[in-house]
Protein: Methylenetetrahydrofolate--tRNA-(uracil-5-)-methyltransferase TrmFO
Amino acid sequence: MVDAIHIIGGGMAGVEAAWACARAGVPAVIHEMRPKVGTFAHRTGDLAEMVCSNSFRSDDHEQNAVGLLHWEMRAAGSITMEMAARHRLPAGGALAVDRDAFSAAVTAAVRGHPLVSVVEEEMTALPDDGSWIVATGPLTSGALAKSIRQATGAEHLAFFDAIAPIVHADTIDMGVAWRQSRYDKGETEEERTAYINCPMDRAHYEAFIDALLAAEKTEFREGETAGYFDGCLPVEVMAERGRETLRFGPMKPVGLTNAHAPDVKPYAVVQLRRDNALGTLYNIVGFQTKMKHGAQAAVFRMIPGLKDAGFARLGGIHRNTFINSPTLLDDRMRLRARPWLRFAGQITGVEGYVESAAMGMLAGRLAAAEAKGATLPPVPAATAVGALLSHITGGADAKTFQPMNVNFGLFPPLPEARSGRRGRAERYKGYTDRAKADWTAWLSGTVAQAAE
Structure:
């Protein structure tokens, strides 16, 4: 039997790496410090715990790069996508899950696989030999982060990631709020009413912005800087960028009609998305925050419909560590200076649950093939997985490297595609059709190679 692949971290990337190894017939060992060593963001010792949002974002695999990534991961046997499907919640066109049930199911499946074992221990230094995948995510422990900096010979990069608050559904005033997905999106009534909407008129919006700007914020330690990732900005930071920023961002009123006053167009709308299967918890969409807890409760209760809101969890903020992957990793995700080490997930500079899981899945496949004495063909750059891989292993400018969600801007251009907004739908469909064909062919080739 081939030697085991060792994986540091039991988050999205780590479990996908282990699952990919096991599916290839290669044993995998996950080294996870929780629950023995906790973090301020995690609540359990489960694998693949979701700490920020309960959404994997758009599931549209024809017009959205994230939805395409879902499709590619499903085709490759992703454990994340399998369990997300089993524990899916209504969320319009998004893929949202009951976060506790999802993580519990992933944990049971991974721990129950005969080729996967989980060791509950903190790794404080990078190993000197073997085959390892570092998938420690945004909350890499201090000791291991120090070891990574020593191994890479470069200062690590950091930004601050913020967590949105969660509200008890029975404390939302449905005499003010109403249920509707934007543009009534969804195939079922449950999908079309997946969000709770809280309307604001102009005076209320202006007062809310004033309160956001005046609220007491979390202070950073000396020497820390707030290099935020634009896809996860704290709500008050968005407000600081301009009083209308929120109204054209998470509080945009488009595609929504107030069921209580159909003829009155809201000036702004705060949306809440279902967070568990029971429908008892809702998270405030796009409202990551670094306000102190006392200020959060006061400010968020200014939102119409949330006057008496009870919070199951208030927002928070944490430091997120990632390496400068374009300078450090080869096209097989190996650390050039120490090729027995692969990096995967958010620590490589991809942003989001899905992107992190996809990179873990790919790292597992690459490591398993190498363990069996094989080399997989290059991942097509026109696929969602390949576009992310290309970005972090040389496609991005190392001098300005920042965390990145998957998006069509990372894909090779389509020949003769129409440019501009009018050609967007046709262009996006072209991207996804090409990616699906390339990904299917790549998977077929890797399966055939594994069988030889």
